[in-house]
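lol ok so funny story. i was supposed to be doing the assay writeup but got distracted and ended up predicting the structure for this chain instead. priorities right. anyway since i did it might as well share w the group, maybe its usefull for someone
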Amino acid sequence: MTSLVRAYVSLCFRRPWLVFLALLIPSILAGLYGSKVQLRTSLEDLLPDDAPSVRALEEARSRRGDSEMFTIAVQSPDPLANVRAVDALAAHLRGWDAAEYIEVAQDMSLLRERALLFLPVEDLEQVKATLQRMIRRKLGEANPLFVDLEREDDDDSQDWRHPDAWVHPATRVELGLDEDVFTSFFPFRGSEAGEGAPATGRASLPEAYRDYRISPDGTVALVMVKLRGSSTNMAFAQAAYERGIAAMEAVDLASFHPEMKAEVVGAYRSFLEVRGVAKDVQQATTLAIVLVIVLLVFFFRNLRALVIVLAPLAVGVAWTLGVIELVFGRLNILTAFVFAMLIGMGIDFAIHLYRRIQEEAAAGLSWQEATTFATLKTGRALLTAAMTTVAALLTLVLAHFDGFREFGIACALGILGCFIATLCVVPSLVALTHHFREAKRLAPAHTRQPPPDSARASIRGFFAAVCVLGALSVLLIPRVAFEYDFSRLSGPGSGRTISYGAAVGSTRATAPSVLVAPNVEAMREVHATLRQRLREEDDDIRGFLTIETFLPADMDQRLDLIEDIDEILNRRAVRNIDGEEGEVLDKLRELTQVEAFGEEDLPMWLLRSLRERDGSLGKIGLFYGRFEHSDVHEIADFQERWQVLPTAHGEVLLSNSSFILSDVVRYVQEDGRRLPVYVFGALALLLLLDLRRVTGAALCLAALALASLLTAGLMGLMDIRIGLFNMIVVPMILGIGVDGAIHVYHRYLEVGRRRMAMVLRTTGFAVLAAAITTAAGFVGLLFVSHQGVQTIGTLALLGILSVLIAVLGFLVGGLMLFGRVVDPPPPEQDLDGSSP
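and the output, tada:
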């Protein structure tokens, strides 16, 4: 290694331009190759393929296809203006090559004409019983001598004007109808429920618009387009979004109503969130670069040092970008911020190496000799520091959570790239810059003079204070909690201003779960289970839609009951009833004139919802659950109860994208319990291999443990929670801590405990500079709009502060108090570091 270093440094000083270009050209090519890497922010991409939520989603997609719809929401106070604007938008979008179909309404004529046939058997029996009670009461009022020979001893107390007297309240939910639509289909509400009141909102629309997708109050209407593409394709999503904007501008919304506004909503707006994250990445990286440059100017105070220290970082980042594109082909929400972190972490190697070169040059060596000597002496510490940091990050490969695994690999590659770039670039740039002009040497450091007693006393006091802080931190650890509320870890959002859920329906949702059954029989059994639990007022169920909803298996039994109702309605005495009751009876007579129907009679919108890619119908259903989509506790509880529904005909899976959050947290927590143990084990092994001293390795590990303790204490004091994003900081904090500990311990081995004050002035200064520049790389994360990424920056800064306290206070103090005494090195040394 000594011969190799000497040969390379000699080549750099003999042929500086050749070496510089040999490094520059491949770095530019790597950067250009990596610049095409794409950003994907979906949490689904961070889970392993065998995660329950991922398997369910893939099963649903493979059989049903992508359910995302390109949606434009129109909003104004005028319902009629809204539906007319929707029509205009639909007409403008019909020439879109990417559109499979456009939907502005859901044809409910089948349900409207055959309403009774969609009522469950128990509801039809209730209709029959209520009808008999109403007729009996009406005939009894008209003729006191009337006797109903079929009268049963039932309850006459319930008012026939109320819909609940005729059908179960859950039936409307089962059919997916808002209350105003439901009561317009059935004649179950009389004057006491508001008959004669002026129609408002959706009810005020002409008959031609009554099936449009519009909210009950009429203020929001939707046009939905099924596209031949996916919203996860950012280029396609952006093109679709821009097509929607162009359509809104073309139809002149103000011509329909002066207060009208419209916007693209739903999945195809998500590219704006990706663009927001990309902007965050750029902002964080730019801020990190600026802060690092300012700090380097402060620490080194000359332009030459700035170039020499920054250039290896630029080369290392370019290599890393190219390797990430080659290995992963994309960036995720975690790896996207690797470069901002590398700016702070990767520059440490160059700071330590060039600072040592300056120090040796100040001692009287030529710049070539100083470069060779510093590379040999500091290179070993740099190698150990790089390997320990890489090892700490590569323990994330053992994580079950793919997000941690990808981040660990990407960041480890970045650290390794910056280390290699430092050893290659710094000697070449020192040679190249001194080829033009000799740099001014630093004033020599008085490394052989023992420190004054006051300095040693200060180090002892600092050591004692750090030990006390560590003891106090133990009391604060119980206050550290896990973050389960993902609304506090969300991204910048898409900027949507129109709330369009009501236009989808009160018993529906914009993101339904998908029921995936092995056969039709299993789906019908699940439907029966859901119906029963809905009638038992299960709070989890908001609504559901299956083959049983619109093609019931007991259709013949329902027809028999409808015939019984029709027979009652056509009795001579009943036909003579007039008034409110007579109007209800006339409507019921119309509804009893029904016949069975089949799949060919179902409306297209329904077939599109329930039909599989192979054309089969009946094994796919939609389930609308009621849970908070940002609360992982609620999601996990809901997932546990509903993800697998057993039946006599096989298991039915429930797929929902929100289950991704639940699985993410579960994997993260499992990894969080294991990975710190792996990290400490890897670091202990590498320290033993490098230092070959059990006491030295133990002291360095004790400093790391103390840094971890201080970090946890600060988190408890400041109420900072551990979570999905900032958990990746843990191995980085340990890696940063071990870097500083290694540099301090290696310098201690050179000079002994009597000169620890000098170690603080030289190596300690480099450790401080490296830590501050590392912190600068994370400061940029504090100003991004993604709240989860902000927590990375916050925890990293606390960790770096704790590392500085532990290394410069505890480790330096411990070595000064308990380390061995080393005789001062002779003033003359060979360039391999050995005494003559």
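The first helix runs from residue 2 to 14. Residues 190-196, 827-836 have pLDDT under 50 and may be disordered.
back to the writeup now i swear
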